[in-house]
Target: Gas vesicle protein
Amino acid sequence: MAAEQRERRSRSAESSARASGGRARSGSRTGARAAVGAREAAEQAGEILGALVDGPVEGISGVCRTEEGWRVGVDVLELSRIPDTTSLLATYEVDLDRDGDLLEYCRTRRFRRGAADGE
Model:
């Protein structure tokens, strides 16, 4: 019976975390989450931004550690055109805390898919 209750609580915490866009908490005694690494931060930033902006995430263009957690560059398709090399993309800087939760995001660059930097 006790094992079933723990499993139910664990599933409930995971579904709550998914619904809020956060990560499931680990460590049932303290309720604290482990700090996320660069790969997890990149994945989390892409998922969060994809839910907030109107356009599919194309990729991650950078990840760097900050004092608060992580800053992730996420590329998003903003306007699809034919031919595809003329489509418009944007890079967003997404700031996450150490647990992978969103602090802020900002569009920093807009460019054509086929354009090189500086064009």
